[in-house]
Input
Amino acid sequence: MNPTLDILLNRKSVRSFEKRPIEADVKAKILEATLRAPTAGNMMFYSILDITDQRIKDRLVKTCDNQPFIARAPMVWIFLADYQRWYDYFFHSGVETLCAERKIEMRKPAEGDLFLACSDALIAAQNAVVAAESFGLGSCYIGDIMENYETHKEMFNLPPHVFPIAMLVFGYPTQQQKDRKVTTRFDEKFIVFENEYQRLDGDGFKEMFAEREKALPQGKATRGITNYGQHMFLRKFNSEFSKEMSRSVREMVKVWREG
Ligand SMILES: Cc1cc2nc3c(=O)[nH]c(=O)nc-3n(C[C@H](O)[C@H](O)[C@H](O)COP(=O)(O)O)c2cc1C
Output
């Protein structure tokens, strides 16, 4: 159809990389495209950590739910939701005095600011994914970077209004990864609604999950499990990593608010 759609329709997460490093000019172009992402108020409420130190990559394997492929990725970027830069800039710009003169409150970054900064960071991250694909590079998001907030805060010297919302690992995919089929998605009728939200009922769920139900893995881990919903509840929603993520985010929100 066109090269952009080709990339979007054929992208898949890549977790196994060739040993080949990523060329400096390729990396520079990916970064340029990343920083061109739309950003709220053109304020760029995000920062990016380019992790080049192998010891840090090795540590991230452990702090991000033991995912060894992180250490083997030639390029690792952490996307930080960042309101600290602007908040510091406000102080630097004499906003405190302005507020006193005008009798307005010098408020702290709050929940809305956090979500806006997360939006900015994630939109930039997806630009990086697409730009990387255009050079034949594969990537994978690591959501587990939201876990272990206190550890990451210390590791990366993060101030109160900065939070690692996503990590991306990049590399040239191995032949086996290139040959792999793209994953399936739910039918759009379950995802896209006209004008108002449609809550599913029993029949809807049956239809929506029919394909996944057929592919339900069999084995020790799934013994006693009768459907895909139960499988995913145990594997994802009720997993230790998922609980840790919520604990970590709760702690971060406290620090972000109190800052
Ligand atoms: C927010 C987010 C977090 C993710 N976290 C991880 C992760 O920690 N580890 C991993 O292997 N894949 C992770 N993924 C990749 C998803 O598992 C993947 O996108 C999904 O299974 C669909 O496969 P596809 O991207 O190949 O189409 C994450 C994706 C997103 C969008």
